[in-house]
Amino acid sequence: MLSDKPRFPIRQMLLHGWWPSVLKVLLYRLKGYRVGRGVRLAFGSVVLGRAVDLGDYCSIGFFSFVRGQTIRIGSRVRIGAASMLDTPHIEIGDGTKINEQVYVGGLQFPDSKFLVGRNCQIMQMTFINPARTVSIGDDSGVGGDSLLFGHTSWLSCFEGYPIQFEPIRIGNSVSLSWRVFVLPGTQIADGVVVGANSLVRGSIPPRCLAVGFPARVVSREPEFPRPVSPEEKVRLLEEILTEFQSFLRAAGADCRREGETILVTRTTGRFWRSRREAWRLVVNSSTAEVSEPPQVQGNAFLSLGPISRDARSRLDRAAVIWFDLAAKERSDAGGELADDLAGHLRRYGVRCFRVKAASQ
After folding, report:
1. β-pairing, 321-324 with 300-303?
2. Using an 8 Å Cβ cutoff, are 193 and 175 in contact?
3. What does the pLDDT look like over 341-353, one tens digit per residue?
């Protein structure tokens, strides 16, 4: 067949898939791929395309492959083991995570696109068919075992059966629970939550809860999502930080709070090689804007209220990692305490977009 291609790139996996990551990166650069710093390609993983851009610190897991004509994978993207992304045009935004055994492919057209925004997550065992474009906005999540189909065709159109090839658009800050089935032509607006085991078709309006088979809107503003007062935000932050400290203690770190500062220490190594490491997290529990950052003598600054651009610049110059919960943004730099904090905030649906310093 003129258009036939193997379902799996076995030849490339056997030829260089087993190479160490550093050698695969060198090979891809020689082929003209743009490969950023700190890219990690696990055993058995390959990337195949005509125009390929792999962002800084992205990683592709064990026996996974990405194949297409144009491929752009943003910085700090993680693709789990045994995942297959096979679409003519692929674009994945910064900070997005695709879990294990996710399949993107199937019946497609030459212009089919799979577009995923920043800070998204697609859970394991999900099947996505971009027969026409499937686009997922920033900060959205797709639960495991979900099915997103861009086409409906099996029985003959000459016998009167329906044939449909339509794009799927999922907006920003959308949550699809586990085992959601999305039909071709579906449009899901920003801020929607779709309940588990739902079948979605047509259009879903913004900021609502939809459940059922087919999914119907069962709650919307102001009941869903409900408004949160400043006092309630302060209480929630305190509960999150208290729990965060308990997790650090369970991991073997000493943790105590002194006013608005959380002090964390840990002893690593053994016997004469042991050393003591220390971190400081300064917390601003006010919802007011921070225009003048405090004299942060520490590694990280967490603010419930917005941090002004000037205050962010000062913190960047002082090498302090900042978190702006009001804007859902953080500095691009990372560190052990900051990365642990970012992971803990994700438990509560708070995913902060990384912002590069002005000098970068």
Report:
1. parallel
2. yes
3. 999 999 999 999 9
Residue 48 tokens read as 């195949």
Cα–Cα distance between 240 and 340 in angstroms, integer?
Answer: 13
Residue 62 token pair: 């064990």
Residue 112 CB coordination number (10 Å): 24
The two three-digit tokens of residue 180, written as one number: 């959601």
CATH 2.160.10.10 in the chain, residue ranges: 10-220
152-174 per-position pLDDT tens digit:
888 999 999 999 999 999 999 99
CA pair distance 167, 150, nearest whole angstrom = 6
- The owner of tokens 């002082």 is 318
**Would you state the pLDDT for residue 276?**
82
Q: Please give the pLDDT value at position 3.
A: 62
**Quick one: tokens of 102?**
């996710």
Q: Which two tokens stand for residue 2?
A: 């003129």
Distance (Å, whole) CA 226 – CA 221: 7
Q: What is the strand order of the sheet 103-104 is part of?
A: 46-48, 65-67, 84-86, 103-104, 127-129, 147-149, 181-182, 199-200
- Give which of 173, 174, 206, 168 is closest to 187, Cα–Cα: 168
Three-state SS for 158?
Answer: helix
Residue 37: pLDDT band with limits 50, 70, 90: very high
Residue 181, class by beta-carbon neighbours within 10 Å (0-12 exposed, 13-18 middle, 19+ buried)? buried
Burial of 30 (0-12, 13-18, 19+ CB in 10 A): exposed
- Report how far residue 124's alpha carbon sits from residue 267's, in angstroms, rounded to the nearest whole number: 36
Residue 247 DSSP code: H
User: 3-state DSSP call for residue 317?
Assistant: helix
Phi, psi of 54 (to 5 degrees): -110, 115
Q: Tell me which DSSP letter residue 226 carries.
A: P
CATH 1.20.1740.10 fits 10-220, yes or no: no
Whether pLDDT at 359 is above 60:
no
Given a contact cutoff of 8 angstroms between Cβ atoms, the answer to whether 280 and 257 are in contact is no
